[in-house]
């Protein structure tokens, strides 16, 4: 029996959860994406841009860029709001493909590297920990999106990890 790759599975959950929340937003009037709300972010688009920018920053770190440079390289992505759910689905999908290629090239996700975090200082960190942070960060902000949807008068959709388990084909269980 092959060993289950928890970081890879968690990243797949993250991708699925992003697609799920975007699918829910797609069902609503297109104006909802840019409708202002008094919350963590001024619009759903701003929250989605933040998730994408941080995912992109961590991808750059995982592929060898120093964190201060990766942070600077993605800073403008945080403020760049896209026009449509289609545009978010496209950039999220493209980045997920890059992450998946990176996973395929990694012989050891438990490899430790020095992370020079400009906000907290240097720390030895495993690739697996960085992936789990990407997933955790996305989960936190999808929660913001859910709250924002409710404030705008719309229901959200369940995108919990436990639901993800039941969405996967039985053959993928390990």
Distance between the termini: 8 Å
Q: How would you write the strand order of the largest sheet?
A: 1-2
Structural class: mainly alpha
Share of helical residues: 55-70%
How does this model look, in words?
The chain contains 6 helices and 2 strands, in the order ααααββαα. With about 170 residues, it is mainly alpha-helical. The protein has a two-stranded antiparallel sheet. The longest helix has 25 residues, at about 125-150. The N and C termini lie close together (about 10 Å).
Features:
2 strands, mainly alpha, 174 residues
Walk me through the topology.
Elements: H1 6-27, H2 44-62, H3 67-79, H4 85-105, E1 112-117, E2 121-126, H5 127-151, H6 161-167
Antiparallel strand pairs: 1-2
Short description:
The protein is mainly alpha-helical. The chain has helices at residues 6-27, 44-62, 67-79, 85-105, 127-151, 161-167; strands at residues 112-117, 121-126.
């Amino acid at each position: 029996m092959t060993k289950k790759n928890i970081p890879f599975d968690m990243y797949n959950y993250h991708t699925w959860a992003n697609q799920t929340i975007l699918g829910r937003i797609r069902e609503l009037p297109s104006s909802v994406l840019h409708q202002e709300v008094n919350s963590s972010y001024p619009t759903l688009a701003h929250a989605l841009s933040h998730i994408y920018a941080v995912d992109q920053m961590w991808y750059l770190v995982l592929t060898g860029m120093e964190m201060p440079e990766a942070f600077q390289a993605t800073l403008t992505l945080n403020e760049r709001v896209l026009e449509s759910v289609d545009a978010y689905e496209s950039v999220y999908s493209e980045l997920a493909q890059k992450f998946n290629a990176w996973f395929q090239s990694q012989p050891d996700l438990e490899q430790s590297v020095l992370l020079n975090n400009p906000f907290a200082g240097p720390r030895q960190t495993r690739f697996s920990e960085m992936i789990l942070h990407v997933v955790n960060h996305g989960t936190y902000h999808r929660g913001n999106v859910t709250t924002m949807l409710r404030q705008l008068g719309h229901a959200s959709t369940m995108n919990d990890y436990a639901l993800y388990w039941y969405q996967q084909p039985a053959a993928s269980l390990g």
